[in-house]
Amino acid sequence: MKVVIILPTYNEKENIEELVPYLEEDIFPKVKNHKMFILVADDNSPDGTAEEVKKLMKKWQNIDISEGPKRGLGAAYVRGMTHAIEKMDADIMFEMDADGQHDPKKIPEFLNKIDQGYDMAIGTRYSQGGSIPENWPIKRKMFSVFGNLLVRTILMKFSIHDWTGGYRVLKKEVFLKEKDELEYYHSYTFQIAFLHKTLRDGFKVAEVPFHFSDRKLGMSKFPALEYIINALKYVITAKIKEIIFGPFGKFLVVGGIGFILNATILKILVETFKWNPSYANLVGAAVAIFSNFNLNNLWTFNEKKITNISSYFLKLIQFYLTSAIGVIFIQTGTIFLGDHLIGRQYYFIYFLIGTFLLLIYNFTIYNRIIWRKKPQK
Ligand SMILES: Nc1nc2c(ncn2[C@@H]2O[C@H](COP(=O)(O)OP(=O)(O)OP(=O)(O)O)[C@@H](O)[C@H]2O)c(=O)[nH]1
Ligand SMILES: [Mg+2]
């Protein structure tokens, strides 16, 4: 397949002079099963990076350049990847810093992951076999390590260890799927957003540990403060969106509909048909639970929908039972405990706490028991 190594550059003349010949002479001859190309995505660097690339293009025919205004690292990658696919017919693309910090000797290992069927492979500095420069000042080390840990914790995605690094390989299909959404991330947040969306859409992502060496030539472009703010903004909004529009948000809407049904039936039976409120509530709750089960099945957990008729009835019974256990032990239990241990005057607060715990319990039971994902064969 056709592989394009994309090197984003802003004032990297000295580095590109070293890196390109190294790739061409020492690395590419070792890759036997793919055709290797280079694309430099340069943002009109004033130091003459583009002129240097054009010299190299005369020596090697597998090099191309995409030039444009400086809008940030993410924007340069979007432009570069689009160019690689449309103008160079790339099947596979690498993201690699032009300053030599990403050890090119790892290229075959990255390509192995693609050959094994992965859609993307992420170079990681934070799992076994990976590392960051020892001579980095302690502030930068802490920033890098804790920054990554924070991203993983907020997004609750621990399987990938390095979210911020820029040494990656991906199939063109991944970029084409995410491209429109990536236009918004012009700077370094692009890396986090790209990986996050790739995982969200179910692409298979592998990790390749590598040693991140220190920059030897040229100046760093890393916009530390801007990056912290934008990265935090991204992960926090992404998490909130996930909660609101994901299964938990749907589960709350379904529960709300159940509550309205329960209350309406209770009122009609008591006020119009003069039923005893306890019996009326039993009917209301039974209808609400039935509605909750079906709406959750069709909407909240639609990816794990129960369609088989016998497991439908089995799960429905399970659902009634676990719902009853939740109301009796969790919700009523909290009220009972509060009443006995603290006092009756706060009974409504115990009810609210009990209901909150009940929501967590229900959501967990639905995920873990009722709509448990079948183990993959
Ligand atoms: N085209 C383009 N390239 C950029 C831009 N910002 C950074 N780069 C390139 O992206 C790569 C990574 O940037 P660096 O400054 O090395 O960032 P870093 O590796 O996190 O920081 P250091 O460890 O200090 O080098 C380098 O090849 C830069 O030249 C940009 O706005 N446009
Ligand atoms: Mg660098």
Largest sheet descriptor: 7 strands, mixed
- Strand portion: 5-15%
Q: What topology, given as strand order, has the largest sheet?
A: 3-2-1-4-6-5-7
What is the overall number of helices?
A: 12
At the fold tier of CATH, the topology name of the largest domain is Spore Coat Polysaccharide Biosynthesis Protein SpsA, Chain A
Bound ligands, each once: guanosine-5'-triphosphate, magnesium ion
- Find the CATH superfamily of the largest domain: Spore Coat Polysaccharide Biosynthesis Protein SpsA, Chain A
Topology:
Elements: E1 2-9, H1 13-27, E2 35-42, H2 49-59, E3 63-67, H3 73-88, E4 92-95, H4 107-115, E5 120-124, H5 138-155, E6 168-171, H6 172-182, H7 189-200, E7 205-209, H8 224-245, H9 247-271, H10 277-300, H11 309-341, H12 347-370
Helix pairs in contact: 1-2, 3-6, 5-8, 6-7, 8-9, 9-10, 10-11, 11-12
The protein binds guanosine-5'-triphosphate (GTP) and magnesium ion (MG).
The site of magnesium ion has 4 residues, from loops.
Task: Briefly characterize the structure.
The protein is an alpha/beta fold. It has twelve helices and seven strands.
Structure description:
The chain is α/β, with parallel strands linked by helices. It has 2 domains: 2-241, Alpha-Beta Complex (Spore Coat Polysaccharide Biosynthesis Protein SpsA, Chain A), CATH 3.90.550; 247-369. The protein has helices spanning 13-27, 49-59, 73-88, 107-115, 138-155, 172-182, 189-200, 224-245, 247-271, 277-300, 309-341, 347-370, and strands at residues 2-9, 35-42, 63-67, 92-95, 120-124, 168-171, 205-209. It has a 7-stranded mixed sheet with strand order 3-2-1-4-6-5-7, with helices on both faces. Helix 10 (277-300) crosses helix 11 (309-341) and helix 11 (309-341) packs antiparallel against helix 12 (347-370). The longest helix has 33 residues, at 309-341. The two termini are 30 Å apart. The mean pLDDT is 95. Bound molecules: guanosine-5'-triphosphate and magnesium ion. The site of guanosine-5'-triphosphate (GTP) has 19 residues, from strand 1, strand 2 and helix 3.
